[in-house]
Design brief:
Oligomer: single chain
Largest sheet: 11 strands, mixed
Number of strands: 17
Order of helices and strands: HHEHEHEEHEEEEHEEHEEHEEHEEHE
Number of domains: 2
Length: 302
């Protein structure tokens, strides 16, 4: 009994000393607890952000194995081409698309060209194969709620958000603007649905809406799609990013020019077999000295 009483007294004394010690160091202890709490919260936030970004990316594009674009930081390439954020710094020659398409491991290659806009929305120059091969979510294909893919020179397909926000229907006539959306175009009111009054607009070359895409929950909803030849046709009679003063070309005259694409912003690639991924990347990297590019495996983000 005496030994148990002695142990209890010793434990009580230790607890009392520890309590007084902590009380005298209460400020330092509070700061330590606060720092640990902030560190845990920061780690949780970073992990949550990583998971959200990965989920968002997986929902944005599916079934594409490689993304090839101008030489630069991979994150910038992904943001500009997949999420439509930021600007593409450089461009690839159209010859690079032909070389990529000719690789024996490549099943399909879809180019995209950035550089024009319609108010706060981006215009994507591409080919009809974009609507056949690009997938979102769990390999869900792009679906037209109305209309079809573009076939003519002055035809445009619009995403669900563009149609909803601007009230566009099939056969609507719209005017595209030169350059990517600016901060001003993101906030100014939409007065006229056909033209946003931008000084460097392509008002002499209106487009007709031929297709409306179903909602996907991705950047595709906020985009307009035209052919690569249409991008070239828009800039006939332009020099250094501006129209040549006094030069007016009719649509018939524009068609007489060589409208073959000269440059593209990036290429989406689907492989015949997934196990050919690293071999294809090595082939592209070996070719980099001929045309500077960056090759990014999209499978690594899923």
């Amino acid at each position: 009994m005496s030994s148990q009483r002695s142990f209890s007294q010793t434990a009580a004394l230790i607890f009392e000393l520890a309590s007084k010690s902590l009380w005298h160091r209460r400020i330092a202890l509070s700061l330590l607890i606060l720092a640990m709490s902030l560190s845990c919260a920061l780690l949780f936030f970073i992990e949550r952000l990583r998971v959200d970004i990965k989920t968002s990316f997986a929902q944005s594009i599916s079934g594409t194995d490689l993304l090839v674009g101008p030489k630069g930081h991979p994150a910038q390439l992904l943001l500009s081409t997949v999420f439509h954020l930021g600007e593409p710094r450089e461009a690839l020659t159209f010859e690079s698309l032909k070389w990529l398409s000719a690789l024996d491991s490549v099943a399909w290659a879809v180019p995209i060209s950035l550089g024009d806009s319609h108010g706060p929305y981006r215009v994507i120059g591409t080919e009809r194969q974009f609507f056949e091969h690009i997938r979102t979510g769990e390999a869900e294909p792009l679906v037209f709620t109305q209309g079809r893919a573009f076939t003519g020179l002055w035809e445009v397909v619009i995403g669900a958000s563009v149609a909803r926000q601007l009230g566009y229907k099939l056969d609507a006539s719209i005017v595209l603007e030169h350059g990517l959306p600016s901060d001003e175009s993101q906030t100014k009111p939409l007065i006229a649905p056909k033209s946003f009054g931008v000084s460097a607009s392509h008002e002499d070359k209106p487009f007709r809406v031929v297709g409306l895409l179903a909602p996907t929950g991705t950047a595709i909803d906020r985009s307009l799609f035209v052919s690569l030849e249409s991008i070239e046709a828009l800039h006939v009679g332009w020099q250094a990013g501006a129209p040549i003063p006094g030069l007016k070309l009719s649509e018939a005259m524009v068609r007489k020019f060589d409208l073959s694409p000269k440059q593209i912003s990036a290429v989406y690639i689907g492989l015949k077999q997934r196990n050919l991924l690293f071999r294809t990347q090595r082939q592209i990297h070996d070719r980099r000295r001929a045309w500077a590019c960056a090759c990014r495996s999209l499978a690594a983000y899923r």
